[in-house]
Structures
1.
Amino acid sequence: MEKKIKTAYVCTQCGAIYPRWQGQCNQCGEWNSLVEERIISGRRRSTKTAAEKPGTLAQIGQEQTCGIESGLKEFDRVLGGGLLRASTVLLAGEPGIGKSTLILQAADAYTRRGLNVLYVTGEESLTQLKKRADRLSIGSDDIAVINLANLEEIVAVIENSQYQVVIIDSIQTVSSGLFQSPSGTVGQVRESAARLIEIARRNEFALFLIGHVTKEGMVAGPKILEHMVDVVLSFEGDSQYLYRLLRPVKNRYGSTFELGVFEMSPTGLAQVENPSMLFLSGIDHGNRSGAVVAASCEGSRPILVEIQALVSPASYGMPQRVAGGLDNKRLALLLAILEKRMGIPMGGNDVFVSIAGGLRLGEPAIDLAVLAAIVSSLRDIPVSSKTVLAGEVGLSGEVRAIGMPERRVAEATKLGFERIVLPEQIVRGIDTNKIELVGVASLEKTLELLF
């Protein structure tokens, strides 16, 4: 049947298709986001297929629900404990952050578990891949590598062999012959991902797709790509620091609040099993104003970090509010609580708050430490470096309960802290004599205790 080629305009943000160009996408509201693509269409014949008989959940074998562990604990943690067969994982991150290094180390770890791995690279030559493998001391004979960017050729390689794990680096470089548009466009990414995901589910192998991100930090390509895959991992970090963070943005098989911490070294990415030691490594254990240790939790793991604040008289008419590692709006909210409930005027001061080490946290349990650091800097009164704070502050100034207090207390005890300040309602349920537990019910009581 002769196929007809026609032109359509596809939104690069949401993937909506329009017959003609228009300035704004009606679906997502973005301006100038439509790009022209040549798509192939043809008449489809209705075919009769044998209907599969539905089964019950009890008939699903336990081996089908058991994840495959790589042995990299930080990597397995964010995947929900292991990699499931027939699942698709999208790993996204900024250029040069270490995505290819991480996935190559993961491929080596899976081969050590007896799995056959196929690594398809479309961005670099096999010589470049070999040099990276030598630097990482990876020489596994079970990692099959090939340099391909054509979707049909990749599919043929996958269909002709039996692989348990397939890695595509990256999905933006794969292009199909059905489209005349270049690789990386909305149509190419959508078609390539859909074909590969279909084959992965049919042949029951795990699929890793490496993805680029835009300057806004979003995964490049259509938004529907994130809906098609089972897991979306964000690999992030600051170029000024050696550590890298692996966060699950979406996970159909586990929690999205986990966190994997890696440290970049000349021989690759090293796992950081105790991130609290990493982020508290710069503390000199001397009493300094504006520095408070907070007990946070990312997923199931506790992390102790140092909150630093600097409050100074505003030099200009409009006071500055600068937050590093936490949301600016959250900082503005906490300052409003401090001014309204405690009567501490902040309108004439510049406020700078940062999480030492460059870590970014969104947990409200650091509220108490942030406010304590701000008051400490404002009054120039230090908080004891042997004290840890954890608690969410409500709009009326009350200190609200937080989750997993036992793990926070255990982490503070392990690192040698002498006192931890927690919400009053959860202190009663913690049994320990290795660290002093102090319960507070309000922000006012906390400040009276510390200052």
Note: Residues 176 and 191 are 7 Å apart (CA to CA).
2.
Amino acid sequence: MKTVNLFRDNKKKLYTLNDVIDALKSVHANECDILFVHTDVAFGTLNPEIRRKEYLHYLYEALQALNVGTIVLPAFTFSFCNNEIYDMKNSRTLMGALNEYIRIQPGVVRTRDPLLSMIIFGKEKNMFENIGKSSLGKDSAYDILHKHENVKFLFFGAEIGECFTFVHYVEEMLKVPYRFHMAFTGDIIDTSGHMYKDTYKIYTNCAGVKPACFYYFENYLLEQGFLKKVKLGEKPVTCISEKDAYSETIKKLNENINYFLEKPFSINDLVCEYTKGKNGERVISC
């Protein structure tokens, strides 16, 4: 692979495409059949000789160079919750520039789930074809991943404490008391251009409950040897197996039900409500 200069860190050290690939391999991101990738690709000051789109292309190339059978990335839009149409082909994702770049590449498939959509490319790109209507529950993308062997999570510049949505899937599997099912109904446009109305639900936190930014969980995983981590420019690259992430999340919740919350919840916090509509009227669900 040719040498391509991509960015410099704050000490002016230059990083190439090969450095990126080496960092990914050093955390063993290439040693799996399915790789789920969270991204935040501001690794440093971009090489002025390449455009932003070229930079994203090279990062996409780095992921492909791992030769993993199937790669999955989140492509959430959140628009469905705001009474906006979810268009499988055209709705932009809010999950970062690299995710949006990959979304529109040839051969990339997007899931039908309008709340937590995923994009997939590779050997099993149709693995979510029969995805369910509970975005974090049974037959969700996370549930399907959990039922596969040799799956890993890669945090490509992203921080585990801020974006590990998989934790909420485990919370639903354990039916934690501080979350409830919130349903949304809206319009979906499928890949053939057909529009239809449907309802999906998500296991969200109750009104008085605030999820934590759980950097302490990442530290615990590192200390116990479940997580591999290196620094790439100004950002971390970390990787963990789905099996370990699932078992350790369950372990922590069984030890302390408030582990992933900013503070312990009380009975008064368990109000199942949300705001809906242009006038911001409150709708009580339970």
Note: The longest helix spans residues 242-255.
3.
Amino acid sequence: MRGTDPKAIIDHGPMGAAQWLTVLITVGINALDGFDVLSVSFASPGIAKDWGIDKATLGWVLSMELLGMAAGSLLLGGVADKAGRRPTILGCLVAMALGMFGAAGAHGVAGLVPWRLLTGLGIGGTLAAINAVAAEVSNRRSRSFAMGLMVIGYPLGGVIGGIFVQRLLASASWPAVFSAGGWATAAFLPLVWWLVPESVAFLDRRRAVGALEQINSILARLGHAPADTLSEAGAAGARRSIADVLKPGFLATTVLITFGYFAHITSFYFIVKWVPKIVVDLGFAPQAAASVLVWVSLGGAVGGALFGMIATRVGVKSLTLATLFAAALMIVWFGRGASDLASLKTTLAFAGLFTNAGIAGFYMLFAQVFPTHVRATGTGFAIGVGRGGAVVAPIIAGYLFQAGLALQTVALIMACGSLLAAVALLVLRVRDSD
């Protein structure tokens, strides 16, 4: 491979163990995101009972870290494109850990809200950064599969965390859920510090003094031969601007993919955030509610993995469209309710499979439509604005329930998000970016 530029070395070279290790760490970080986001869902029955809050107020509590996540994606995605993927991830992990530990010590809604906002800020930043890392550390042949693996980290965090929380809540109260998440997050700081290198594509595009030497050091660490020169300025994007994602020639793509993500996230977070409370309201115990959410996450993990494997042979856009239609159908089916826990788990496992597969599709589409120099920024913009759907989903559902609407009606309304996302993708033109 000597005599070629860094981008060609990564794109066309083999995937070494160090590259797969980096991908696996992004899986783990996404699992932290999954557990951190779901932690307040696991804790919500206890919070509602201890603090005596109604469903509308609980909807706001469930949305606070999602609001922080939207801000983090919008603000920190740009930081990852300027300062680097690695330092952004490290800083965001610190914010997440502090937010979780702070939430564990909260004594009321007013005390809990700022800590959940801080946690969400860190999560939003990591989502934009690890999406870029997974795409840029992988060769062209393995990129879709690597990103599929990264995406399944979220539901894996829910599965592992849910099993752990079931046992934890048998002997401890809800603050222990946040404490456990804080310690797990803190444990990833040394892993990222020692094992995750800076993105070669980022360094190549940035073209700072000593960039080639730094890139060759990383290439050696990844098991590749050194590059003789940086990519050509045009290919690296030196003359491009971060504002590309909102320029007239690119605006339609940015708006469509962002709206599609927003709409589908609304449906996804209705399931993720309200399932524990709905299950309890159906007459099951809080521990049973946690077990049902585990099945949602287990289905999501399977869905993300299957999507990643199938996407290596089928177009990502077509596959995403199919999963969005299936996700809407399963959410409506969930609204019918169930008389026994086994049926409820099965329905929600399939709902988790298709909704998370849709998320995987959007993440792969982000990597395709946003070029290297704005990949984290564009992804962060789409996630940040799109996470508005995550913010409003629990609130909308809370007010719909508060208005006296039945679960079947609420589920039908919330399923429309995935259908609107499918409409947006039908219009979207997908092209593979550098």
Note: The chain has a mean pLDDT of 85.
4.
Amino acid sequence: MRRTPPRRSRADPLPIFATRHRGLAEELRRLGRSLDTDATVLLLGDQGTGKDRLARLLHERSSRAAEPFVKIDMGALADDLLESELFGHEKGAFTGAVTGKPGLLEGAGAGTIYLDRIDGLSLRGQGKLLRLLEERSLRRVGGTRSTPIAARFVASGPSDLLQRTRKGLFREDLLYRLAVVTVRIPSLADRRADIVPAARAILRSAGGPPGLTPAAERALRVHPWRGNWRELENVLLRAAPEARSRGAAAVDVPHLALVSPTDPEELLRAAVRAGWTLRALTDSYVDLVLDDSGGNVAEAARRLGVARKTLYERRRAGG
């Protein structure tokens, strides 16, 4: 029997995503009304806008919260392994299947299955996913027994998924199957009124100081935020420890001046004036290149002029 977790007022079902953006606020209210339904949800937005965060929040605020939350990166699944990875396989189902293996979907129970980067699936893979959503049951490769799927499906994709559909890059029937409830998350640059409140919320969750200097507020409002929420968090989580170490009541972000100069030498002079260490400068630049490359390590390594192994080792080291 599914346990119902304690929740706040249903009048504000998704408080962490509070916004002054009229369109987003309306879509979040509609999403809130679907919290405890089986309706499939499609989250659309650019890199770093918070799709993962919203998917997990939707799960945690629903009556499925006590059940598993299973995130699957669809862009990382190869076509020839798609069914085996998702559904599992029985012993001897194919060459190399020396033992049976459960699929990623088997562990979801009555929880939430989050299909991240849905646009990463090939057209062939999209067809297989469509059948899964229509039948709502799974059968291991090489198996004979079908198991009903009780979990709710939430998917995420880029803001231009509809345009990709019109170009024939994404199946229209799958789009409509996924988009029973759709939330389009605008970039931070299109939600300027949300930036400072969001920054204060991030600082509170990080243990403060919760305040921002007037200069910091001005800088946050005009910054382009190409990395969206992820970039905002990165900036503040770097600035907060420095403010704490100085005993400051408010956080400043002087290093955001780095975004205005276009001459490389002036960029470095701005970094010197801001007191950046070489490690901080390197970490920030590598993170920005990774974000701008959509998390593609090979592409980021090419742009940085380093070996992929260097970035993988950096990630394992927590750098």
Note: The chain has two domains: 15-186, 190-316.
